[in-house]
Automatic annotation (TrEMBL):
Record's protein name: Formate hydrogenlyase subunit 3/Multisubunit Na+/H+ antiporter, MnhD subunit
GO terms for biological process, alphabetical: ATP synthesis coupled electron transport
Topology with respect to the bilayer: Multi-pass membrane protein
A molecular-function term among this protein's GO annotations: lyase activity
Membership in a protein family: Belongs to the CPA3 antiporters (TC 2.A.63) subunit D family.
Cellular compartment(s): Cell membrane; Membrane
Residue ranges that the Swiss-Prot or TrEMBL entry lists as coiled coil: none
UniProt xrefs under Pfam families: Proton_antipo_M (PF00361)
Keywords carried by this UniProt record: Cell membrane, Lyase, Membrane, Transmembrane, Transmembrane helix
Location of the NADH:quinone oxidoreductase/Mrp antiporter transmembrane domain: 122-382
Gene Ontology CC: one annotated term: plasma membrane
TM helices/strands, residue ranges: 6-26, 33-53, 73-93, 105-122, 128-144, 156-181, 201-223, 235-254, 260-281, 302-327, 356-377, 389-412, 424-445, 465-483, 545-562
Protein function: NDH-1 shuttles electrons from NADH, via FMN and iron-sulfur (Fe-S) centers, to quinones in the respiratory chain. The immediate electron acceptor for the enzyme in this species is believed to be ubiquinone. Couples the redox reaction to proton translocation (for every two electrons transferred, four hydrogen ions are translocated across the cytoplasmic membrane), and thus conserves the redox energy in a proton gradient.
Length: 563
């Protein structure tokens, strides 16, 4: 045990990045703060390792008498995020060394980190909400860092959905706190949700507000556009750590141990649908960062599908939270390493390119659940709370996961001649690869209480891994015959939604212009403006995708109005 009180160490985990963020605004010191990024998560890492479970620290002078605490599940999320933020920060310090906006990047990086840490240690809804808002809103400048048109478009999508999520979450906390007799403690709100007569609206506001951050389909559309737009190290923490803020929120607030058959089944259907659909959409992308973004949506769909099954069956928290924390740890570290690897692909030494591809392949196969890997260990554990059908779906999902990750390998950029990887970036990537492939084995016993045995029933596991083998065969066959993957736009639903918005605007203008045109003299040969807008409406309806989205929105509105 280090010579610092655990409570003080826990508070330093969140306040230290805020202190570094304040230094970033100093004119002379700000540009140099990019080199301090690896130092910002170190108190969080120390707290996750050394602070005992049950550590609490009250903050009576801040945020409505809130506080922070640490338990076993929180420690796993905090430790995994701290490792990723540390190594991604080391990568970013070299990656953005000569960037003109380095000071601004360091400022918002530290603010998002402080929020990310705060989410994992918040003991009350007020602290959680402020921390979650830091994560959501302060990540916007990271997404639009290069100020390119595509980044600004991605940022617009991101911030709109972030604000919608914040509003839903705020409403859920107000209603939950009122139902809990005015208490803002997370435990009290969760216990109230578990009681009889709870309004399901509170539950679904929580799922919507947190599900947007976690990439729950169809609320996922910010991920496939934000991840490619952000710089590589920011993409790594967006996918590996920031998305986990939404997952952790669901684990912290949902009423485990009570049966919610309709809500749980609905969440399970949404999650498992995202598990497969997102992977297939990712396999149709040409940008490796977009491929990884869809893979994240897919993997988070798996977690939320299991959460839905647990809600529907009344599974207690003790049987669910440690397992999902282990799975989230593996995904966060592995996906972070894959994003850093995408950034390393073009600068890796040509003569050692096979070694680099071997590392990326090992990460991809682990994420897909190849037997004897950390990913197989995590997936085997998560099949338990998923139930019989859920376990079968998770096993079969190795096919789509394998296809999307094979697509990643084919979209990696080629090595640039006469370029050598900077040592700091190479070290960060290699260290994160090692952490991703080994951390689940190291912490498995501490989390689940039993020692891992990846060789148990190995023959059975190999047979059950046939979907992954089929994915490898299909990918190899496609490469051999030169088959091209289909093309899908980033953000999938964004284009139909955009066309639907144009349809609504054209309809509005058509109605207003029709009234105005009735007052225009019929002597003129010019077509009234209404005709132009009516033609736009006809053209929009010719787009079946836009029509389908409009029909879905209208039907959904009528459905919720009726219930």
């Amino acid at each position: 045990m280090i010579g610092i009180e655990p409570a003080l160490l826990l508070s330093a985990a969140a306040f230290w990045p805020l202190a570094l963020a304040m230094l970033c605004v100093l004119p002379k010191l700000g540009p140099r703060m990019i080199t301090a990024l690896p130092l910002a998560p170190l108190p969080a890492l120390a707290a996750a390792i050394y602070a005992p479970s049950g550590t609490e620290f009250g903050l009576p002078w801040l945020l409505l008498d809130g506080g922070i605490r640490l338990d076993d599940t929180r420690a796993v999320f905090l430790g995994g995020a701290a490792i990723l933020w540390t190594l991604a920060g080391l990568y970013a310090a070299r990656y953005l060394q000569n960037d003109q906006r380095a000071a601004g990047f360091a400022l918002f990086w530290n603010l998002v980190l402080a929020g990310n840490v705060g989410v994992f240690i918040a003991a009350d809804a007020a602290t959680f909400y402020v921390s979650f808002a830091l994560v959501s809103l302060m990540a916007y400048p990271l997404v639009i860092h290069d100020r390119k048109p595509a980044s600004l478009r991605a940022g617009a999508v991101y911030i709109v959905l972030a604000v919608i999520g914040e509003v839903a979450l705020f409403a859920a906390f107000l209603m939950g706190s009122a139902a809990a007799g005015g208490s803002i403690l997370i435990a009290d709100i969760r216990d109230t949700l578990a009681g009889p007569g709870t309004d399901p609206l509170i539950l679904w506001l929580l799922i919507a507000g947190l599900g947007i951050k976690a990439g729950l389909m169809p609320l996922h559309i910010w991920l496939p556009v934000a991840h490619p737009a952000a710089p590589v190290p920011a993409s790594a923490v967006l996918s590996g750590a920031i998305v986990k803020a939404g997952i952790f929120g669901l684990l912290a607030f949902l009423p485990w141990g009570t049966t919610w058959p309709i809500s749980g089944t609905t969440l399970a259907l949404m999650g498992f649908a995202g598990l497969f659909i997102a992977a297939l959409l990712g396999a149709a992308q040409s940008n490796p960062k977009t491929v990884l973004a869809y893979s994240t949506v897919s993997q988070m769909g798996l977690i939320m599908g299991v959460c839905g099954v647990a809600l529907a069956t009344g599974l207690p928290a003790a049987a669910l939270l440690p397992i999902l924390a282990l799975y989230a740890l593996h995904h966060g570290l592995t996906k972070g390493a894959l994003f850093l690897g995408v950034g390393m692909a073009s600068v890796w030494l040509r003569n050692s390119r096979p070694f680099f591809l071997l590392l990326m392949g090992a990460l991809a196969l682990s994420l897909a659940g190849l037997p004897l890997t950390a990913g197989a260990l995590a997936k085997a554990a998560v099949k338990g709370p998923a139930g019989e059908i859920g376990a079968a779906l998770i096993g079969f999902s190795a096919l789509t996961s394998g296809l999307v990750l094979a697509r990643l390998m084919f979209t990696l950029p080629s090595a640039t001649p006469d370029k050598n990887p900077p040592p700091a970036m190479m070290f960060a990537f290699l260290a994160l690869v090692i952490a991703a492939l080994s951390a689940p084995f190291v912490v498995y016993g501490q989390i689940l209480g039993t020692d891992p045995d990846p060789t148990a029933d190995l023959a059975k596991k190999i047979v059950e891994a046939w979907p992954l083998g089929l994915a490898v065969i299909l990918a190899a066959a496609a490469a051999a015959v030169g088959m091209q993957a289909p093309r899908m736009p980033e953000g999938d639903l964004l284009e139909p939604l955009r066309r639907t918005a144009l349809l609504a605007m054209a309809a509005f203008h058509a109605m207003s212009d029709t009234k105005a045109s009735s007052d225009i003299s019929t002597e003129t040969d010019d077509a009234p403006p209404a005709l132009t807008n009516i033609e736009r409406i006809q053209a929009a309806f010719a787009d079946r995708a836009a029509t389908a989205v409009a029909f879905a929105l209208i039907s959904g509105g009528l459905f919720f109005a009726l219930i």
